[in-house]
Amino acid sequence: MAVTSESDYVLPCGRDVEEVWEAIDLSDEHTRSCPHCAAVRESLLVLREATKEMAREEVEPPSDLVSRVMSAVRADVRRSDVVPLPGDGLARVSTRAVAAVLRYAADGVDGVRARGCRVVEAPESTVPDPVIEVELSIVITAGRVTHLAYDEVRRRVLAAASARIGVRLARLDLVVSDVLEG
Amino acid sequence: MGVAEAAALDDATLVARSRDGDMRAYEQLVRRYQGPMYRLALRIVGSSGDAEDAVQDVFLTAWRRLGQLNDDGAFLGWLYRTTTNQCLNVLRKRKPHADTELDEHESPAPRTRPDRAVEVNAQLDALQAALRGLTPEQRACWVLREVHGRSYDEIAEAIGTTQQSVRGRLARARAQLAEVMAPWR
C-alpha cells in the first residue's frame, strides 16, 4: 500500500521501496528489468534474512528475573492495604494512613469523635485520578451536637481527602454508632 | 499443584486465578512471557539493564492492574502494549547523549551466536546498529511487526496511533534498514 508519507523512498523509476517489498516474491517484468527495483529488492532480501535471524535469536532474560518480579509482587501484596495517589498509579498510600487523616478531620467538629473508618478504592477510580469511598462511624455527645454537625463532618472529611491526601472522595457513608451522654 | 500441571493452564485461567491473589498462577504467567517481553524490550531500548528494569516494572504493573483487564484471554496483547509503552517512556526519559554511550558496550555479537557464519553475525550486527538509527516509535513498530509478528491493530494500540500511521512508520523503517543492508546484497 503506497502512503504519501513514503514518498521519500520513491525510486527513480517511480516505484517506492514499499511496493518493491510487497512484490518481493513475485518478480514481475518491471522488477526484472529495472536496475533500481532490482537493487532495492536485493537489499530487502538481505534485510528479510537478517530479520529472520533476529527473530530466531533467543536472548534469555537474566536467570533471576522471575524471582525479582515475584519478590516485588509479594512485597506489593503485603502493602496491599493501599489506594493509589494521583499520577501514574505507582505511588500509593496506605488506607490506614488515609483513615487516620479523615478521623482527625472529623474529630475537629465539636461533640464528634470518629470511631471506625474504612477506606476503599472506588470502582470509578482510574490511574491518573484515584477515587475513594469511605465509611466513617462516629460517636456523638448528646447535647453538644446540632444537625449542622453532620454537614460539618462531611465538609471537613471531604476537604481533608482532597487537600491532605490528594484523592477524590466520591462517597462518604456517615454512621452514628453511639451517642454519649453529655 | 505441580509445576507441570500449572504450566499447562491457559492464560485466561492463570489470569483469573492471579486476580484472586494466586501468586503461583501469576508466577507461571511471568515465566511464560518474560522471554518475549525481555527480548522486545532489549530490541527497543538497546540496553540489557534498561530492558530488565522495564520488564520488571511491566510485570509488577500488570499484577496491580489485573482488575482492569476486561478480557482474561487478552493478557499477552496487553503485555505487549504495556512493555512497548514502558520502553518508549524509558527512551523519552533517557538523556540524548546516553544513547551512544550505551550502544558502545551493548553489542551482543559473539557471545550469543558462536555457531553461526561470520557473515550472518556481521549482518545481524549491522541490523542491530541500523535499528538504533530509527526513531523509537519506528523501531517499536518494526520490531513488533517483523520480529514479534504482532498485528497492525495491536501495534497501533501499543503506540497510541492509527494503523495507517503504523504502516507509514514501518515502510520508512524498512526503507532505512534496507539501505543499511545494501552492502551485503
Number of strands of chain B: 0
In angstroms, what separates the terminal alpha carbons of chain A? 82 Å
Number of domains of chain A: 2
Strand residues, percent of chain B: under 5%
Overall average pLDDT of chain B: 85
Number of helical segments with 4 or more residues of chain A: 6
CATH architecture of the largest domain in chain B: Orthogonal Bundle
Q: Could you tell me which chain pair has the largest interface and how many residues each side has?
A: A-B, 43 and 50 residues
CATH topology of the largest domain in chain B: Rna Polymerase Sigma Factor, Chain: A
In the predicted model, the low-confidence regions of chain A spanning at least 5 consecutive residues are: 1-6
Q: Please report the number of helical segments of chain B.
A: 11
CATH topology of the largest domain in chain A, which one?
Alpha-Beta Plaits
Oligomer: heterodimer
Share of helical residues of chain A: 40-55%
Q: Say which CATH homologous superfamily of the largest domain in chain B is assigned.
A: RNA polymerase sigma factor, region 2, helix turn helix motif
Category by helix and strand content of chain A: alpha+beta
Query: What is the C-level CATH assignment of the largest domain in chain B?
Result: Mainly Alpha
Instruction: Look at the structure and name the CATH superfamily of the largest domain in chain A.
Output: Cation efflux protein, cytoplasmic domain
The radius of gyration over CA of chain B amounts to 18 Å
Tell me what you see in this structure:
The complex is a heterodimer of chains A (182) and B (185). Chain A is 43% helix and 22% strand. Chain A is an alpha+beta fold and 182 residues long. In chain A, the strands form two sheets. Chain A has a three-stranded mixed beta sheet, covered by helices on one side. A two-stranded antiparallel sheet of chain A has the order 1-2. The longest helix of chain A has 22 residues, at 35-56. Chain A is elongated. By secondary structure, chain B is an all-alpha fold. Chain B has two domains: 1-105, Orthogonal Bundle (Rna Polymerase Sigma Factor, Chain: A), CATH 1.10.1740; 107-185, Arc Repressor Mutant, subunit A, CATH 1.10.10. Chain B has helices at residues 3-7, 11-19, 23-45, 48-64, 75-93, 98-104, 109-112, 118-132, 136-147, 152-159, 163-181. In chain B, α3 crosses α5 (75-93) and α5 runs antiparallel to α9 (136-147). Chain B is globular and about 55 Å long. The relative contact order of chain B is 0.10. Chains A and B meet through α1, α3 and α4 of A and α3, α4, α8 and α11 of B.
